[in-house]
Every structure is written in C-alpha cells, then in structure tokens.
Amino acid sequence: MLAGASLTFAFAPFGVWPVTILACAIAVRQLHRTEHRGFLTGWVFGLGWFGAGISWVHVSIADYGGLPLIGSVGMMALLCAYLSLYPALAFYLTRRLFPAHLMPLALPFFWTLSEWLRSWVFSGFPWLSLGYSQIDSPLAGWFPILGETGISALLVCLGAALALAHTRAALLRAGLAIAIAYVSGWVASTYSWVTPERSISMAMVQGNIAQSLRWVPEQDGPTMEKYRTLTEPLWDNDVIIWPEAAVPKLEPLALDYLAEIDKKAAQTNSALVTGIVNFNWENDDAWNSMIVLGKKQPDAQQGHYRYFHSNRYAKHHLLPIGEVVPFEDLLRGLAPIFDLPMSSFARGDFQQPNIQANGVSMAPALCFEIAFPRQVGANVHNDTDAIITLSNDAWFGNSHGPAQHMEIARVRALEFGRPVIRSTNNGISGFIDHRGNVTSRLPQFEVGSLSSPVTLTRGITPYGRFGDILIWGLTLAMLVLAWRLRRQ
C-alpha cells in the first residue's frame, strides 16, 4: 500500500519520475513473496495508488456533493476500491499462470489488458496511468512511438526485472535494461516525427468563476459580460479560446449574445471558440458542447455562426455522476450529489469532424476526454493543426488534480505531435507545444488572459498512425515467449 501511495510523488505537481519503477519493483517483489495471494497484493497496491493519487476527488464530493463527511469518504473509498480491481487482476493472472522468474515477460501483457479494461468499463476512468509520470524523464522520447500505454507496460516490465534481481549479476542485468530504456528514449527524443508548418497568434481567457456560482441564473449576465470585457484587448489574435461552459446560458437562450460575439470576431478577422451547453426543447436532450464563432476560414467576409451549425463538437465521454447518472431512476433524489446541475447530458459521437476556426483545424476534447488517447487519436488526422481541450477544474479546489490534468494534456501533445491548447475556468490554462512543453500558462485561481504564438504541425507520429497496435504486439510476443519458456 505504501508503494502504491508513493506513486503520487511520481506525477504532477511533484514529478519525481524515478519513483515509478521503484514502486512497481516493491509491489512485484511482494507479489513474488505471496504465492497464493496475487489478487490481494495487486488490490492493496492499487488502494494506495488511487487512494493517495486521486484524493482530490474527495474535494468535489465534500464541497459540492452535499454529502456529510462520512458519506464523501465512503464514496471516495468505494471508487478507490473499484479502481484497485484492475491492478489486482493483472497481478492475479501473472502470478496464477507463470512462475516468478517469468514475470517481467508476462506482467506487461496483463497490465496492458487491465488498463485497457479500466479505460472503458463503466465509461472508463484511465486517470493516473503509470506512463504519465515519465513526461519529464528520458523515457518521454518513446511517447510518439509507443504512447502512454506502451510506457506503462515498459515501466512494469523494468520494475519486475528489478524486483527479481536476487543476485549481483541479475541486478546488473536489470540495471542495464533500465539504462538502455532511458538512454534509447533520450535518443528517440532528438528525432522530430512532425514538421512545423506555420505560426499563428492565439489567446485564451480564464474567468475564474466560483463553482458555486456557475449555474446560478442571476450570475449569467455578469459572467457573460466578464468574458466579453476580458476579450476586448485580444481581438487582434487569429483565434481566441474560452473554457468549458464559459457561456452559462443554454445555447438557444444565448443567441443574441452569441450573434454579437460572432459579428465582433468577424469584424476583427478573428474566430472565438467557447464551451456552452446546447439544449433541444423538443426531446429534452442536452449536450456539453464546443462551438466556433466568427470566421471559419481566413477569406470569409462575415461570421458563420447560426444555431446548431455544424462547426461544433458534442462531448462523448461523459463524467459519471457529474454529467450522467447511472441507474438514474434509482439514484436521483437519494443525495444531492446525484442531482447536480447539468448532470444529464446526451452523448456525442466517438468520432466527430475537427472544428474550424479562422482556417485552423483542431481536434476537440472536453474536460477529462483528454485522458482517452484512443478517442483523441480518432480525431487527429493529417490535416489536423492542433488539439484543443476546454475544461473546468474548479470542482477540485487547491488539489493536485488540475496539475495531473495538465500533465495528461502534455502527453497527448507528444503522442500525436500536435500543439495542445488547454483553456480552463480557473487554471491550469496554457499553451503546450508539439513536444509536450508548456510554453506559456496562466496562474491558477486568478482572472486573466494570455496571448501566445502557436506553431502548427504536419505529419503523423508512429503512435498517431498505429495507436496501441505496436504495444499489443510487443506484449503479446513477450507473453508467448514466457509461455514457451514455462512449458520448457
């Protein structure tokens, strides 16, 4: 459990990336020592991993869920116990099917399998996957090739090799394998898989609206006026970004306001992307959406916005409880957390067209969708210029959740070789280049705006082209080799 909890320091905002291999080594060492308790060993490791790593979820449950302390702690414990089932499954299968000395060959496949399950069962929650911890390590060079999924498999393989090094010779071999992985990653990072194409000027606005005021009807007007005022000095930029649900009114009720912004953006040869909630009065469907106002292409003579125009994105991965309530008929009314404002959205398609803003083609992701590489990858094409993600992390207060969210966005930039524009209500907002470096950012919990040049890229990384196929093939080959060695 302590080994799992120590993983928190490997991720943002701490970034002590060597912890990951050591924590995995301790867990596998314990797995080796407990002959018939592989599932329990993995589950306890996961309990420490998630209990400390996503403790920030408790902030949203306690502060905005309306539950007493015992209720919020209980829900947090239940979530962590559920997520711990996945490393437990990987440990159990490895220990059940293979002897200890073959764990470095077998565990990566079962780990990849369990993490794949965690990414989609009950809509998926792939947060805090091990590979994210390596964004600032030499292993980062492998992200454009193997993706975060592959880095995670590599880490458990190296950790298992280190755990089973019982002799000096074995320790030297494990050390050599770790050195090769990190040195080769550093070498790979010197190669550019994509080509910088052109630079544009972008700006974003951070309104810092308190979560308690987000959906108060009397605050709609002041919030919308605040974003309009903060944007006035930014109209000389090619594209301006507002965060998730920056316009707090339902889209059909905000048409006059949107038309004004659309006209202003066109007059200044600009485009504006904002989050908003759309609602269909005929069938009561609501969508957490991203829309474009102003110029769609640079040569346009006027703004192109009209209600329900096609230049928009509807969120696909909805956050359980926060955006969609499972077993809704049973749970709504039991506690305030199951009846939050805006917690009953319809789901957009998995793959949707890129949004077009003043000639810039962007693959969209709303909030925690950026943690789903397969969905992001499905929307990154040869002609995609950048990835855009709008979010609202005010739910999580002054915790390490927003820093982890930014770290995930940095990994997506490196995997797909595209700059990532991340605009949030209260931070962390910033621009990320195609190498995963944060080039500029806004301070958290402050009202502000930020302008920056953004270099757009062309080309496809190996991970962007093949996705997880490469790591599935490698881990399966290792599993087959382990199986043959086991039979011998």
TrEMBL record:
Coiled-coil regions listed in the entry: none
Localization, UniProt: Cell membrane
GO BP term (any one): lipoprotein biosynthetic process
Keyword entries, A-Z: Acyltransferase, Cell membrane, Membrane, Transferase, Transmembrane, Transmembrane helix
EC number: 2.3.1.269
Membrane topology term: Multi-pass membrane protein
Phosphoprotein found in the keyword field: no
Residues spanning the membrane: 6-28, 40-61, 67-93, 105-122, 142-164, 171-194, 469-485
GO cellular component, one term: plasma membrane
Pathways per UniProt: Protein modification; lipoprotein biosynthesis (N-acyl transfer)
Molecular-function GO terms, alphabetical: N-acyltransferase activity
Protein name, entry field: Apolipoprotein N-acyltransferase
UniProt-listed InterPro entries: Apolipo_AcylTrfase, C-N_Hydrolase, C-N_Hydrolase_sf, LNT_N
Protein task: Catalyzes the phospholipid dependent N-acylation of the N-terminal cysteine of apolipoprotein, the last step in lipoprotein maturation.
Source superkingdom: Bacteria
CN hydrolase domain residues: 205-456
Pfam families named among the record's database cross-references: CN_hydrolase, LNT_N
Family, similarity comment: Belongs to the CN hydrolase family. Apolipoprotein N-acyltransferase subfamily.
